[in-house]
Amino acid sequence: MIQFENEYLWELDKSLEGIMINTYETILKEKKKGTSGYFTLGSDSLEIMEDAKQLAQTNTFVKQCDTVVVIGIGGSSLGTKAIESIFKHKTAGVKRMLFLENPDEIDLSDKLVSIEKAKTLFCVVSKSGLTIETISIFKEVIEYFELDYKSPQKEQIVAITDEDSALHKFAHQYGIKTYNIPANVGGRFSVLSAVGIVPLTIAGYDTKSILEGASAMAESFFHGKENHLLKKAALLTKHRKEASINVIFSYANCLEDFTKWYVQLWAESLGKVDIYGNHTGLTPIGHIGSVDQHSFLQLIMQGPRDKTVTFIKVEKFEKEIKVPNIKLKFLEKTDYINGFSFNELIDGECEATKESLSHVGINVDKITLDSLNEKNVGRLILYYELLTSLCGIILEVNTYDQPGVEMGKKILKNKF
Amino acid sequence: MIQFENEYLWELDKSLEGIMINTYETILKEKKKGTSGYFTLGSDSLEIMEDAKQLAQTNTFVKQCDTVVVIGIGGSSLGTKAIESIFKHKTAGVKRMLFLENPDEIDLSDKLVSIEKAKTLFCVVSKSGLTIETISIFKEVIEYFELDYKSPQKEQIVAITDEDSALHKFAHQYGIKTYNIPANVGGRFSVLSAVGIVPLTIAGYDTKSILEGASAMAESFFHGKENHLLKKAALLTKHRKEASINVIFSYANCLEDFTKWYVQLWAESLGKVDIYGNHTGLTPIGHIGSVDQHSFLQLIMQGPRDKTVTFIKVEKFEKEIKVPNIKLKFLEKTDYINGFSFNELIDGECEATKESLSHVGINVDKITLDSLNEKNVGRLILYYELLTSLCGIILEVNTYDQPGVEMGKKILKNKF
């Protein structure tokens, strides 16, 4: 169960209601036309999930692996990492996952040293198949582990890429197991395609329930039952000049990678030149409560009033730890929290912060997960993807491309 | 050696030059009056550093510890963590450091399980001495490890707090070793006080060189030799309406915690109601290159032109890894990077991104560290602290308080 509540001080006028209706019609058309394929990944990915499960259970090499290495960057790793971070603490017997993302020498050498070749499956993930960081790191992995991709050792490599990409052709040439990313699913919307589902399933995560949660959210939305999403999209985009920054405050450490996934999704989808040639978009920031209350809250409260805040909280964790009933001399002022659980403390901090922001006129909303289970996380992923698409429609941008990064790529190539 | 270069497209007019002169005079006065005490921590903390070193070398219990646990949140942990993250990979023989910050039940229980009581020193860090998260976690540590702070076991606790704080009184009552934070050094400016220096020194880091680097930067600035700082402060504040967001792109994974430290420093110091009653401030965002080029760059390039970007790069790491000279069939387009080091690749990405942003009219600057050594990091810390103070003076805010978080604290208390 997820609850969505908003306490927006902005009002929904007639013109916004019209925008909501048009936007809903547009996204229905997008779904029909297949503008983006992420809407139906909840069911489309079931087959891939079953195949990956089969591989993990029947392939002699994969079965005995204790580590799954994902070689990928950006949309090819962020979502997978987000899901792994949420569930690794609570899922018994999963394989360790390692992410080789950044071409950072310290990080790379530390991770390579920690990998035991004989027990590791390498997933190379690149939509285009030619991502320079990913393929360069893949080459390093080949050399470092003396990985012979032409021999039976190819079993320990899996390629996840677009059909007919260069990486696909390479994998096909040597009989390396390959999973395809649907052509109409962009990197940042791809976590529930083979990109995330394959490595997570092989590592032992309950991806089926994640997909079910995603399906449930998509179906509910396309049956007209998630009106709050349209309302949120209409308000955030309409007031984008006065509130150009959308902060997420997640009250759980294990959601930190999820907020990074959100930052990519929001920034890269909406930061665009619109059809009239204007620079538009909304700026995402991800924070963790209560830690970052000691960092960023002062600015939201008293700085420029250019932010909205979404609070994400979890009602119940599996492990409950109570603040002990200990009275320390001179520290009695802290005793009011004794006997309550740490989650009640963090919950209280979330509520208190939300109320104080609301009190001074800052627009906030709240997403409550009754627990951090797979279905809820699947729902939450679809929630943010749909919200992003809706905002993109209203902003009149192409939500699914990223032309702004091309210039840098060209300049880079000329440097070598 | 650190190099500071800016490629601002904004011009420095006469009025800004006047502001720079006035600001410099004001900060000289602040230093003289002791408005903040961080300016001289480079030398002021030497004594504390020596004392902590002594403790680590002569105290039988501390000597055999292999773990230093910091119990603290916000300014009491961020800076320490930033320094540890930078140097843990390259400093031989250091003790493991663990940070108990957030009252997060999963994080807390995972970390508690990983601690071996007999080999762990606990540093409780709270400026006010009554931080609710910190003292509650301290109570949990006492109960979980059956830590008897009234017995000789008190040797394994160190308190770092303001003189005469409640925590100070508690520690004094039971003879617990205490280090004081100077009254005029606020949490987010305190990393080079006992807050960071004590745990880092005990863990075995070369804090002396960090302090020397800080001293060198402060002296150089107060001898009028860092004019670029005044220029940057004048330009960033003057153009704060059009460019309200200051992004740091650090091209090294180990600088991620440093960017979090920057976010706190910038947000909490400058996000204020100014002396005229206006909400003012600048919004900090921290990113890591090249990973986040695949996430946030599109928004900077094509979204609203409301951002400046500072690139931080490291010229040389200790470990060099070259992209192997491997040609993979169908992937030949990536071969242009073969034979170059991964650091040359990441460097190229940094330059290419900077140039592409500059090309479309976005204001950027660059900080280059010749290597990630202690002196450079000390300099960099002072650089950002001074820059923050200068911006605060121009914005006419109190850089050193944080009144905006008080309302939340009051509401929190009423919830229990």
The amount of helix of chain A comes to 40-55%
Q: What is the CATH architecture term of the largest domain in chain A?
A: 3-Layer(aba) Sandwich
The string of secondary-structure elements of chain A, in order, is EHHHHEHEHEHEHEHHHEHEEEHEHEHH
Distance, first to last CA of chain A:
52 Å
Q: What Rg of chain A is obtained from the alpha carbons, in whole angstroms?
A: 23 Å
Any overview of this molecule?
Chain A is an alpha/beta fold and 416 residues long. The first copy, chain A, has two domains: 226 residues, Glucose-6-phosphate isomerase like protein, domain 1 (Rossmann fold, 3-Layer(aba) Sandwich); 168 residues, Glucose-6-phosphate isomerase like protein, domain 1 (Rossmann fold). Chain A is 46% helix and 16% strand. The first copy, chain A, contains 16 helices and twelve strands. Chain A has a five-stranded mixed sheet, sandwiched between helices. In chain A, helix 1 packs across helix 11 and helix 5 runs parallel beside helix 9. Chain A is globular, with a radius of gyration of 23 Å. The first copy, chain A, starts with a strand and ends with a helix. The model of chain A has no long low-confidence stretch (mean pLDDT 97). The interface between A and B is large, with 117 and 118 residues.
